[in-house]
Amino acid sequence: MDLGCDGPISVAGGEEPSLADGESLAGGNGRAGNLDLDLNGDRLREECGVFGIYNHPEAAAITAIGLHALQHRGQEAAGIVSYDGRRFHSERRLGLVGDAFSDAGVIARLPGDAAVGHVRYSTTGETLLRNVQPLFAELDAGGFAVGHNGNLTNGLTLRRQLVREGAITQSTTDTEVILHLVARSRKPRFIDRFIDAIRALEGAYSLVALTNKKLIGARDPLGIRPLVLGSLDGSPILASETCALDIIGARYVRDIENGEVIVIDEEGVQSFKPFPEMAARPCIFEYIYFARPDSVVGGRSVYQVRKNMGRVLATESPAHADVIVPVPDSGVPAAIGFSQTSGIPYELGIIRNHYVGRTFIQPTQSIRDQGVRMKHSANRSVVEGKSIVLVDDSLVRGTTSVKIVQMMRDAGAKEVHFRIASPPITHPDYYGIDTPDRDKLLAATHDLEGMRRYIGADSLAFLSVDGVYRAMGFEGRDPVKPQFTDHCFTGDYPTPLTDRAGAVAQQQLSLLAEAS
Question: How far apart are CA 374 and CA 86, in angstroms?
Fold first, then answer.
């Protein structure tokens, strides 16, 4: 069971974890089979990315470019909905943004000066076209399109309640729940209906929505998933990360605050605070892995934070070695920090092949066993005869780490020390990250020495939980009021896990098979 954005019924604000075999509400994602196999089986996968722009003559084209910058947040599907002042237009495709929206003819079918877009990674079940966001519905107040990054922890519960009351659902994503809740609200104004709907949600969500008059953005009360406000020549923009603003030459204005709803229309930008005030707890994994290194999240440079994590790791768990080798690409900033603090030279001892497709067919076990070498190759001239320190950002199942360690030994490394620039992952995520069940997490089933033996390293060490917080500029983790959402390391889930706790998780949802 994988946890993440989209899939056969997982409840996610864009997608969520699967709840039982064959059951999960996809919030923003859902995985089409076991495409990655050994290539990516030991990596965490993000939920989704969202983008919206208002009052720009090339809204769809700008949205496509913005989604391209957010491609790292979801690679299996992309969609754009635009509005031309009279009607809505939708293009939703499986595959990468560049494949789906590089054709001028596709953009021409998305006229209008307002648009919202979404990229999606699916974590469970099939990737179906009907799950691709933004989702659209015709309500009594007019058209409504919504894209969601995150995962609802009560989405399946809400969905079953809606179905019992007569709702007809078409997708298997928890995002559809939001459409129904907005449609059923009896509030007079649309924005009040929207707020009424999100008050029923639990879990993590950053939303972008489009009506015939407004562009709307929202973050959950804890601000688990990121969302920023920007401006391009006076046209307001909402995006998951600042890198999407940079690529189009837009100006960063501010982060959308936790629990904030922002409404953009012809009268300007309005802010609503419909939830009781509480301290923000953004997801720590945005800094460790998910956000692009050139993004600024919560006022912090992601690249600098990752370097700091490597620096703290070098102080906490030094190693006697000849060379520091990053596991590309995610381990690079931490490895630079480790090298700078330790004084051990940094070298590219592993070369990544960027042209290995995600859907590469691996028909036999003997071919599967070559998966890591197809994606990563040892740079023998750097590692042969050397004692090396491999630096990576995280360790999940450990399967890829085993092969990388062996690859270094095959290339002649004398000693292989492994350093992980995050704490051991001991608990699964239910807020939009694709993680295995707890019994598949290496750190949940092995002690440190057991993990070291499993991956075959001469030594193994992780960044401490307090070390993560020190890298973020704090003295340590506040156990009473934690500054970030860090349940994967601590087991401290910041919201109720309603779907997991209830009997609903034992039921089976039916799915309609379709060609896509």
Answer: 50
Please say if 48 is a catalytic residue: yes
d(CA 213, CA 186): 19
**Four-residue CA torsion sign, 242, 245, 246, 251:** negative
Query: What tokens does 165 get?
Result: 């009351």
Residue 170: φ, ψ to 5°: -115, -30
Q: Is the dihedral of CA 337, 343, 349, 351 positive or negative?
A: positive
Instruction: Tell me how far apart the alpha carbons of residues 242 and 250 are, in angstroms, rounded to a whole number.
Output: 9
Structure tokens at 167: 């709702």
The CA-CA-CA angle for residues 300, 15, 277, to 5°, reads 50
In three-state form (DSSP H/G/I as H, E/B as E, the rest C), the secondary structure along 19-76 is EECCEECCCCCCCCCCCCCCCCCCCCECCEEEEEEECCCCHHHHHHHHHHHCHHHCCC
- Going by their DSSP bridges, the two strands 114-120 and 77-83 should be labelled as antiparallel
Place of tokens 């070695």: 321
| Annotated catalytic residue within 5, 48, 283, 488 | 48
List, for residues 145-189, the tens digit of each pLDDT value.
999 999 999 999 999 999 999 999 988 889 999 999 999 999 999
CA distance 59 to 72: 22
pTM for the complete prediction? 0.88
Cβ atoms of residues 131 and 30 within 8 Å:
yes
Q: Is 401 helix (H, G, I), strand (E, B) or coil?
A: helix
End-to-end CA distance of the chain, in Å? Answer: 23
Q: How far apart are CA 486 and CA 273, in angstroms?
A: 25
